[in-house]
Amino acid sequence: MGKVEKMRAAWFNEFGPAGSVLEVGEFDKPLPGPGEVLVRLHTSGVNPSDVKKRAGSFPGLLDEGLVIPNSDGAGVIEAIGEGVADRKVGERAWIYQAQFARRFGTAAEYVAIDSSRAPRLSDNASFDVGACLGIPAMTAHRCVFADGDVDGQTILVTGGAGRVGYYAIQWASHAGAQVIATASNEVDAESCTSAGASAVVNHRDERWSQAVLDAAAGQAVDRIIDVEFGVNLATSIEVLRVGGTIATYSSTVVPQPELPFFQMMYKDLTVRFVIVYAMPESAKQLAIADIEKALDNDLLHHRIAAKLPLEKIADSNKLVEQGKIRGSVILQID
Fold first, then answer.
1. What is the residue range of 113's domain?
2. Which pTM does this prediction carry?
């Protein structure tokens, strides 16, 4: 039996604070199995769900052993497993869903993953951009398009300068929607406007609901893409039209919101909860196809807030946990 090759990787084998449980060292380099590709990673994306997993939000995560964190990343295909006929060694790829229902994510020099989870990365996109696409861009795509065509609609995007909100503004505006975004300061407001929002309101104002309606010429909005479901629910009901939809991907401040059932029922509202891992496979493939087209045609702007070396993974987790930065946090692997 030949000697097992090693790679640099980060991992945790217990839950807890980033500085206490995350380790960086040598780990066995994986081999691609049937249907898989082996990707030499250049970057790894650090998202809130990765940080929450490390903190213990999935209690059974460590039942089978240590975990290499992070779902998103980008790199170059180095080897191809049995049965993969449509990929080539040397092809650039972006990675999503690497650490879901499996232990080994992208915080490492290599990842072996099903070829469908390693789509082609456009030559127009850097590896940094590739690490932003899985959770932020795909979540935003699902939020915008899950309930049909948005052309001609008015869409409210709360937290428009955030990881998901920034992409949601772009997807919606490119598809013909009028986008109203919320932001709490001038810098974030400028980011929303540059992404395609026609109006930006301050969600820290007491009556920001009226500002939304004013921006929509007095009409209720068709859909809301919401970063803080529990906090914003009362305002959402107020500004949303009868038959409207709230697509939400987070409720951090109020994790167990109470639903005003009759108010929501009388307006025939739909609430859609969105997470990439649970998206239908068809929705994932639609998002991938649209991301590929957008990257090939330079249609998407990207916000990268911080880039750190793999050895600083604990610091990257702390940045995400603080919740003060806008844009993606990237680990530089190579």
1. 6-132+302-332
2. 0.96
